[in-house]
Each structure stands twice: as structure tokens, then as C-alpha cells.
Design goal:
CATH superfamily of the largest domain: Medium-chain alcohol dehydrogenases, catalytic domain
Order of helices and strands: EEEHEEEEHHEHEHEHEHEHEHHEHE
Structural class: alpha/beta
Length: 327
């Protein structure tokens, strides 16, 4: 099967390359890609700062949506032509992509593939980090930093669906209002001074059970101060720096847990187990429209550098995707 895909020849140049894809593995599907989601990991890979694992495709792109083009012999949950979205082990910026069948989800008839491409990575990130590592339970309070991001906008809705109280942060009054519309009970403006003071005034400081942190750096001590007794803080990003100075007394006086993860290093079986949990607990809310992926903009695959610049600017709300049908 003929494929066209993106290759970054330098951090500032991209080419469309042609090749062929062989038969799928026994447990895999080949997807005719309509849209591919853009993630910050893709930008880091382009710049040489986040090399893919040895067993991953060197082609960028971690999530796609489209139709099933071919099936491995062990795959029985899907048929050729089915509309699906999927987490890929690289290879998403292409006209054809390969994914394990147990990393795929069937798209509702009412959902466009543009929206579908915004789901797999965000769903898995939030489920694994908030509900697995963070152990968020119904009735607890969670702070999801970056409510205007793809992860944040889905995370707020997932927390609400699972019966938790969602809080968030965003970088302007308009973004705060938009995050609140998604279900966040309170949203603080992280560009204003004294983030801790904003949450204190709202009555949440010291009462937050789980915090999903995408920033690291100088935000970490604020997270510790915001956390409740026995709180859990899960760090998945370092947008504000890889080094943090913290008061360890806060950790042991509150009995806090500080953990983190990167999904590219998550074992295949763990990903499959998480997707099964997502099917059971979250996918019904996707089907009935309670959870809606937010797509800010779609770019033709050839304009991938322009799309990456958009993400780097931080102007987007929700997800950016690539249209892989127009090459």
C-alpha cells in the first residue's frame, strides 16, 4: 500500500516522502488517515529533543483518525471501512498509519474525524495520570493545569463525568471563561500574580486532592501548597523548567505523593488496559456528547511547520490537527 508521510530533514524544514506499507501485524490495523493530532512531543521530536523509542516509527505523530484499510489476522473488533481513532507508536503524520487494534476506539457516527484525532492521546494521558497514578475518586477535587490545552480541555470534562470537582488554570480571562464552560468549577489566571492567592481566595487552597501539572519548574511549590492532606501531584510536563526548588517539609507534613510519567515509555499492555478502562468509563460520554473534543484549527499535512508554529505560539484553545487527506 502506497503511503505519503512527513519527514523533518532539519528542525525547520519538512518534506513529503513516498514509500509503501506492508501487511499489518497480526494484532494491528492499517488506518487510512483522515486527520492526525498534534502534540507537544511532536515539536520536541522535530527539534531533536525527544527521540522516539527504538521500537517506534521515526515518523512523527502519536494519534490519528480515519478508516480501517487493512486488518491483522487476530483482529476481530473492527472491519475494513470502520471509522476509528487510534494511538500510534509514531507514524501518525502520514496518509497510512499502523496501530494496535487494542489501542483503537470506534468513532461515533456523529463525530467528524477532525474531532476524533483530538481524542486518543488526551484520553490516555488523563486516564493514566489522573485516574490511575493520581487515583482520583468521585467527590474529590482535581486541579488540571492548562485548561485551554488539548489535555486540559478533555481532562476537565473527564473529571466532571467521573463525579469529581474540576479546577483549572488558563492564561487570560477569555480562556478562563472557556475552561469554566467545559465544566471547571473555578479557573485561575496563571498570568496574574499570586496563583496560590487566587485559589486561597476561592477557598480551594489546601483542599485539592489531585493535581495534574504540565509546567514543572517554579510551579511545583505552589502545587504542594495547594494540595490537600494525602494529595497526589502528577507531573507530565516541564514547560516552566526541569528544575524545581521545593520545601520538603510540605511533602511530609501533608503526606503528599509526587509522581510523573511519559506515555511514550508506557508498556504496550498498560496502554491496552487503559484503553479498555476508557471504553468502559469514558467512551459512553463521548458517544452521548457529554464529552466533546475541542479542535482549534486544522492544517493540511504539507503545512505542518505552520501548524507547529501555531502550537508554539500558545494561541490555540483545545487541539490542533493535520488533515492528511490533502497530500
Amino acid at each position: 500500500m502506497e503511503r505519503r508521510y512527513i519527514e523533518f530533514t532539519t528542525p525547520e524544514s519538512a518534506e513529503v516522502v513516498d514509500d509503501t506499507v506492508g501487511a499489518p501485524g497480526d494484532d494491528d490495523v492499517i488506518i487510512s488517515v483522515h486527520h492526525a493530532g498534534i502534540n507537544r512531543a511532536d515539536l520536541l521530536q522535530r527539534m531533536g529533543l525527544y527521540p522516539p523509542p527504538e521500537d517506534a516509527s521515526p515518523i512523527p505523530g502519536l494519534e490519528v483518525s480515519g478508516t480501517v484499510a487493512a486488518l491483522g489476522k487476530n483482529v476481530s473488533d473492527f472491519a475494513v471501512g470502520d471509522r476509528i481513532c487510534a494511538l500510534t507508536h509514531g507514524g501518525g503524520y502520514a496518509s497510512l498509519a499502523i496501530a494496535r487494534a487494542d489501542h483503537c476506539l470506534p468513532l461515533p457516527d456523529s463525530m467528524a474525524t477532525e474531532q476524533g484525532a483530538a481524542l486518543p492521546e488526551a484520553l490516555l494521558t488523563v486516564w493514566y495520570n489522573v485516574f490511575e497514578r493520581g487515583r482520583l475518586a468521585s467527590g474529590e477535587t482535581v486541579l488540571i493545569h492548562g485548561g485551554s490545552s488539548g489535555i486540559g480541555s478533555i481532562g476537565i470534562q473527564m473529571a466532571r463525568t467521573m463525579g469529581a470537582i474540576a479546577l483549572s488554570t488558563a492564561g487570560s480571562s477569555a480562556r478562563c471563561a472557556a475552561a469554566a464552560k467545559l465544566g471547571a468549577q473555578y479557573v485561575a489566571n496563571h498570568r496574574e500574580p499570586d496563583l496560590l492567592g487566587q485559589f486561597s481566595e476561592a477557598g480551594y487552597a489546601g483542599n485539592i486532592d489531585v493535581i495534574l501539572d504540565i509546567a514543572g519548574g517554579d510551579l511545583m511549590q505552589t502545587n504542594l501548597d495547594l494540595a490537600a492532606q494525602d494529595g497526589r501531584i502528577v507531573c507530565i510536563g516541564v514547560m516552566r523548567g526541569m528544575q524545581s526548588e521545593i520545601n520538603l517539609a510540605t511533602v511530609f507534613m501533608k503526606r503528599l505523593t509526587l509522581t510523573g510519567s511519559t506515555l511514550r515509555r508506557l508498556e504496550t499492555a498498560e496502554r491496552a488496559r487503559c484503553f479498555q478502562s476508557i471504553r468502559e468509563h469514558i467512551w459512553p460520554a463521548i458517544i452521548n456528547g457529554t464529552i466533546t473534543p475541542i479542535v482549534d484549527a486544522s492544517y493540511p499535512l504539507q503545512k505542518v511547520l505552520e501548524a507547529h508554529q501555531h502550537m508554539q505560539s500558545g494561541r490555540h484553545f483545545g487541539k490542533l490537527v493535520l488533515d492528511c487527506r490533502l497530500i
